[in-house]
Amino acid sequence: MPATSRFPLPPYLFATLLALLALSGIWYSAGQPVVLADVVSSTHKLQCVSYSPFDKDQSPFDQPFVLREERMDADLALLAERFQCVRTYSMTGMQALPALARKHGLKLMLGAWVNPDPVETESEIAQLIEAARANPDIVEAVIVGNETLLRKEVTASHLASLIARVKRSVDQPVTYADVWEFWLKHPEVAPAVDFLTIHLLPYWEDDPAGIDRALAQVARVRQEFGQLFAPKDILIGETGWPSEGRQRETALPSRVNQALFIRGFVAMAEQHGWRYNLIEAFDQPWKRESEGAVGGYWGLLDADREDKQVLAGPISNLPHWPFWLGVGGLIMAGALVVAGRPASTAAALLLPPLAALGGACIGLWGELARVTSRYPGEWLWAVLLVGLNLIVLLHGVLLLSARQGFRARLFAWLDARGGWWLAAAGFAGAVMMLALVFDARYRSFPSVALLLPALLYGCRPVAGPRRELALLLVLIGLGILPQLYQETLLNRQALGWALVSLLLALALGRSLWLRQPAPEAVATKNASAANQA
């Protein structure tokens, strides 16, 4: 009977259709746009927005530090379409900003960066005073220091003396900006300012607020401050939500959640007549260096100055989802081509879902790596994990195929090294688990990178280096409960990582129970497979 007549075509086509539908559903559900009420239009501008004038390839830590005037000019032209003013944080390199703001019809809240270095602080204060005096029509207020008390860089009394000096030197109102708790911890600063500037960032709270209660928390703190410090006015100097990054308890970064928060906050603030400044104008990739992925994604526009639809229009968590669907589809198709004819009817039902799972995991990991990777070492780590997933996917689909010729030889090579593929996944899992237990604050959860090897080798154990597998099992297994305790059971991303870690630990454990074949037996098996091919 010809080999083609034994191809289990009906179940194979049925499974392929279901797998394609599932793969499409994953990406469509991630990218499906959500319609919300707009808060900005050509006739309605918002109050103020934080602005850092860096291109996506720049950082304030660059030496020599040079801002690009053409970048500031283009940025202010964009912001003037939606805002009445911008807030800045430092005077360094900002000499051209007042003239550019005047050109585009924007007001300024100028900030001086206060830090422990007295020379740098003196330079910032002197430039702030000079710019405020020279531009009374543009500079609405000045801000002496930003979260300086939070960073414990100066004392409250020294800060108050700096504020008093600036107040004697300028006509504009003078304030200081910090997270709301630090106004309560240092009440001696409030009498020195003309109004209080408080930061309300529910994502970063010690008790992070999910999107469902974030606005209520902002409203509660704002109302309490209005009563506690009356008759002084309150400016909400920073509030916002990240569009990417790791979940903190119930606080989940996403574009939709960012739009929900910003649009809800603006409506609430305008209803109550609150003064506010949104954080921030553009995504700042340099912040990922110190704050992890989430630090670079607070912008209302991305680092390329493209609109993220946070303020108006339908909003999607993954607007380029068709690209990742295409990547997943190509990986799935390639895996099925390499696999060829399924070995049985059962294999025909399992092969397309396995190929689709591989395509989905690699695509999801690629998207996560795009968001989180900051420097060459992290990109190399991401590429290595993509390579591992491709190897494991090949191993899995060939396991289900009717192997002949090159497929038999390739499978024999992959299968003889199966324990090392599992060990590589275990090593990656152990490294990530240790990082999430001991240094978790800015780290994302890499669950999708290890789901495929955990499932495959959990279902089909492989013989490998026993001591190494045992050590990896201990490291991963012992970390599951501590990381869950730190993140709480409310964090779905942490639960997903715990589940994948448990599956990986089970795969390592099952493989440890395998009786190790003698080297002679392995050589005989490989030689037999090669002869049959």
Structure description:
The protein is α/β, with parallel strands linked by helices and about 525 residues long. It is built from 18 helices and eight strands. The chain has helices at about 10-30, 70-80, 95-105, 120-135, 155-170, 180-185, 215-230, 255-270, 290, 320-340, 345-370, 375-400, 405-415, 420-440, 445-460, 465-485, 490-515, 520-530; strands at about 45-50, 85, 105-110, 140-145, 175-180, 195-200, 235-240, 275. It has an eight-stranded parallel β-sheet. Strand 5 (about 175-180), helix 6 and strand 6 form a beta-alpha-beta unit. Helix 1 runs antiparallel to helix 10 (about 320-340), helix 13 runs antiparallel to helix 18 and helix 14 packs across helix 15 (about 445-460). The model is unreliable at about 1-5 and about 520-525 (pLDDT under 50).
Q: H/E order of the elements?
A: HEHEHEHEHEHEHEHEHHHHHHHHHH
How many strands? 8
Provide the β-strand percentage band.
Answer: 5-15%
Mean pLDDT: 94
Structural class: alpha/beta
Backbone shape: elongated
List low-confidence stretches: 1-5, 518-523
Query: Number of helical segments?
Result: 18
Strand order of the biggest β-sheet: 1-2-3-4-5-6-7-8
Radius of gyration: 28 Å
Distance between the termini: 19 Å
What fraction, in percent, of the residue positions are helical? Answer: 40-55%
Major sheet: 8 strands, parallel
